[in-house]
Amino acid sequence: MRSPEESEPGRRHGWSDEEVDRIISGLLRCGLLISAAVAFIGGLIFLLRHGGETASYRIFHSEPRSYREIARILAESARFRGRGFIMAGLILLVATPVMRVAFSVVAFIRQRDGVYVAVTLLVLGILLFSVFWLGLR
Predict the structure, then answer these.
(1) Is 10 helix (H, G, I), strand (E, B) or coil?
(2) Partner of 15 for a Cys bridge, out of 19, 25, 114, 122, CB 3.0 to 4.6 A?
């Protein structure tokens, strides 16, 4: 007996394009909402702790080293430091489209579309290189 996918002419294997679009839009929406919530919580924590301080613009101070590495950002977030939460929210925001591309690889594999799998893996590789190699310098 043939499966419903095999009996329908023109039907692709795996998820339909509409299903993939629905999943991707949900992924992007959730990523945006979660990253915004984390950054917002960080902003609240930061304002509660430092809202009364006067800013000095005479000398530029870059972010401390603890906010330049993912492990340290997560450690600062675990200590409920506002800047740590804000930076974690930004990391989640950047990770959201990367996860979208990673999901697209899975979707194209399920649809058995080799050309798009290859192209999407190339894009994913470039994104990961940019985030991890260039971002850590």
Answers:
(1) coil
(2) 19
